[in-house]
Amino acid sequence: MKKLNLKLQFDNRGWYIFPVLALELTIAIVTTKMIILWALLLLTLSYTVFRNQRYGLLLEIFFMIGLGVCLTQQSNLKAPHTNQIIVNPDQLKLKNDWLSGVGQLADGQKVSFGSKIKANTRLPNSTLCLQGDFQWQTIAPATNKGEFDFQKYYQYQKIYYRGVATHIKIIKVSPNNNFLSRIHSFRFFCLQSLKKLPHWLSVNARSLLLGDFDSNETSLRQGLTNLGIIHIFSISGLHVYLLIDILIKITSILRIPRERVEIALLFILPIFAVIAGSGVGVWRASGLQIIQIIQKHLNWKISKHDCFAIVLLGQTVFTPYVLFSLAGQLSYLLSYGLIVIQAPKTWQRSILINFLSLPLIIFHSYSFSWLTFLANILLTPVFESLIIPITIFSLFIQKFKLLLEILERLFALIYTPVTALANANWTQITIGHLNIIVTVILLGLTLIWLSEFHSHWVKILIVVYCGCILYNHFPLSGQVTIIDIGQGDSILLTTPIFRKTCLIDTGGKLAFVHHKNTNNRVEQITIPYLKYQGITHLDYVFLSHQDADHIGDLHVLLQKFPVRRVCFADGMQNNRAVARQLRPFQQQVQFMKMHLGDTVAVAPELHLKVVWPNHLSKGINEDSLSLIAAIQNKRWLFTGDLNRANELKLFKSNYHIDYLKAGHHGSKTASDPQFLKKINPQLVLISAGRHNRYGHPHPETMANLKKLKIPALNTADHGMIIWNYSYWHQQTWKVFSKENIK
Q: What does pTM read for this prediction?
């Protein structure tokens, strides 16, 4: 059998200095107080100057100018005090009666905003000046482990504030008085035109040609991400090279000299990058092509590695956080992999590239699909030879409705099963959280393996991956986690080693919330945290009562994550709202009706006992399923939204509880002082939303706790709250944020 000849191709032209400078520049901008880093940076620059004074000095000046600009932009940011925002039309998102987007203030500061607006408002194809009663605040950070951090996401785009208005109006339509505004207006015109196509053709055209992914197609986007093929569906280098190839073929037919076409590309590519949505991938690919054209015409001798590193350095100066996002990391890592990995066949290179990207995908999403490798081999050619050409072809046949309908059905036949398969739980392999050191080690080992291609490196990689799985799937400690889901309840209980898992309530969105956050709490917070922990299923889900802020997202959890048993007080199944959520899942989940005195032995170190209700439940607050959890030598009490009168009925005499989950989010309708005296908890945990409309926790409740000298922790102040315990009876408390979260 012929041995596969794979090797990494390097040269010795000193290309290494560019990625080193780019990396140091990125870190320096973020960690400007690290003296050691600055010393390392100056040492690198001095070494460059020593080797070649002319180019070294040029690099140093280039670096200092870029750093100065970036730091100046960050240091001058102040809280906005204006009611006007300038917005390019293609940066607006209108969904029903909610308008959102990104714009600029008069001083040039970028901001995010959202406001109610009249449904189906027609937006002008021009730069807009919007006026509204904006309430400005810093973008909220993530407050749970595993949760996507929108604050960091926007900070990477130099956006630090968000304004929310109850109404907004266009007070001025600015003329397109500069070239960039005209490009944005043209992009907006294209977006509006492509929305007229049938659904799947429209989704394809807007994402593949303009870099605009339909916010309603979250299932498709998540599926493509799970399969690891989102890079071929989004604007990337593939599309830049396709554009160049089309232009060259057309101009060749027209007998236009190649040199003139290449000169024209120097101007066309930046314009195309803006029209295509200014994504990391399109700017990287455009930058590489521009440098290669310049070096060709000026007769410079720059290796591929040098071109790659110069583009990385340039993009780091203009976009300092480019390597802090998954898109930036994957774009440059995969691009670099294509440069250095030499494989005789395309499918072999595709597989190796996927191995290279695997550590980053796990680092960001805590899991990967075992279909990734197969999907890249099978679907990449389909996209290149079928989907992209058909998408472009559909732009020219918009008047032929029958033909469009045929193409629409073809795309539906492709995407419907792909989405279903990609989002299926059985296709996902959950690894759990990897810290950054382990991720770097895995990337390094993968590069070494690809360079030498010896089997012993594969064995080392397998050992490290298996070690990560064992560490996350067989933890040395158990936990009780008060998940910060805002105004609601969701508590996770786990045991050590052979982990068992229980979730008390799922949380959910209150009925009056119509905007701001369209994602449900389970998909946004709970499931990412479960995957972060390496949890692949839930053994038990306990439902306290009917309220949406406790079980509103139950149906989403049962649909999106494996659950073995759902437990609730007997009688609650007759509640229409509860039955509506349970009915679709009665074949795949075991339902358990709980009665007073029932005990669930989850594990030797975790038992749950029902202490309320003492009658058939109607699912209302007064019937809340109340549980005592005996965990090692500690007792927890969870009471849902149980009222004061029924709290006093739980125990006939004093019954010590170590930790109490405050009833009804700290409302004055719960946590009766006599009840608190009877159970005498060491600590009270409160789950409440920040700035919630109910004023939870109520000042009366907090005053009672203070009077009884009972300390309290509130998720609204500290985010996620975790109590860890181990077989060795070591117990620790952790909060997500030691400082109060605003």
A: 0.87
